[in-house]
Amino acid sequence: MTSPAELAFEKARELIDARDLAGLARLIGDLPTLVHAHGKNGNDLLGMAAATRDERLCRILLDHGADPASANVHGWTALHQAGYVGLPLLVTMLLDAGAPIDVPARGDGGTPLVVALFWGHREAAELLASRSLSPGNLRVAAGLGRADLLDELLAPDGTLAPAAGAHREFHRPHSGFPEWRPSEDPAEIVDEALSWAARNDRSSAVRTLVERGAHVDADVYRGTALTWAAAQGKASAIKTLAELGASVDHRGTFGGLSHGEGVTALHLAVQGGHVDAVRALLDVGADPSLEDSLYSSSALGWAEHFGQTEILAVLRGA
């Protein structure tokens, strides 16, 4: 039988989903202990509000005493979620409320900064990095485009500092991505960093990493540097990687095991609705007729499926 407390928590969740600010404020005002309650997997209302990308909901909960340090069973806090959705205002709000910045989630090294860099949210990542660079490994340096840190961690001759490959257990923000265990292989560390530079549109870091030994078509973990750049809509990185010899029609993996097989960078740029990235890929010679392995569909078919009308016109023009 569902308890009154569980019913109240579910009602609060529904109000958050509906973006009902007044209703949430009334309910929390009547039942202030709700801000400390936890639901499935230990998720609290503040984390759920952060997931909606509506800072106003988070403000209500914080003003009623929600704990910004509260974490779910994976160690995931509201600040991790702010990095995940890439909202600088929400990041600032949570930091000002006392949210911890160096706590890991979903594996060693999974700080809010790393989560923001994973998805290529540059502005949120730079804000987090201004407070803490933890963990200061090579993929963080690459994602931030920090030439000084790259020089400290990766010498011109390709020699790695011990810290370059440390704290890399975090590899996925949710279980939709498959399990993976990073190794201490220097080539893997450098190649992985290349994808983090690309997904954050750090062209200078991309060039540095390739000059120091990164393989432009390496698929370290569910995606080459080019596929990550395309998926995140990073046109500058796409052009840089192509100039450095990346195969623009490389068929690879991306995301979870049930999708992303045999995709090209163009498929992923289309799926994300990234018009500039689509144009950049076409400019460097991407073939729009190639089909993926799971759905046997071209980039044009993906554009039709996802309702990308502007991209459809670009592809048809090509």
From TrEMBL:
Keywords: ANK repeat, Repeat. The keyword Repeat applies. ANK repeats lie at residues 41-73, 74-106, 261-293. SMART domains: ANK (SM00248). Pfam families: Ank, Ank_2. InterPro entries: Ankyrin_rpt (IPR002110), Ankyrin_rpt-contain_sf (IPR036770). This is Uncharacterized protein. It comes from Amycolatopsis japonica.
